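agent: user wants the structure for DNA-directed RNA polymerase sigma-70 factor from Bowmanella pacifica. delegating to structure tool.
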Amino acid sequence: MSTSATFTQQLDRWQSGDPNAFAQVTELIYQELHRLACKEMAKERKSHTLQATALVNEAFLRLADANLSCTDRRHFFSLAARTLRRILVDHARQNARQKRGQNGQRLTLHESMLANAASQMDVLELDDALSQLASQDHRKAEIIELQFFAGMTNEEIAELLDLSSKTIERDSKFARAWLHRFLSQ
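agent: tool returned. relaying tokens verbatim.
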């Protein structure tokens, strides 16, 4: 990942209207989002209709059109993870509507998220569960969002959130257990 200071400087220049900064931020953002999307989509079933490049393009367009006011790299990647989550949820809802009430689009949750790596989970159920978790503990929900939707490691999240890796690991374990319990009900 690019250094936080460089990213934040370029982001500030872009938000101040510098057209040259837009190109630099675009390169930093797009490369990182594409790497994360490829990593996540590689875990999905072969027949998944959404491809990594389409996911990144849609996320990038939504973020660029949103007239963002990001304070730093952490804020931006939190917004990016949330945007990726919304795109996947919208995609699942659209597929569910097309199937006229049958089960929604199924996604495999990354093995670090649940003890059983073979578990299948409906992205809409995960979205509801994350919303519930966020109402109780926003940081834990953000960690899961960054892990699952942005494909970040505990170390990357620790750097991003300016917390220790142990704190991220502890919060992640709690959140996974909470999600498992919530989704098992």
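agent: one observation worth passing along. Confidence is low (pLDDT under 50) at residues 108-120.
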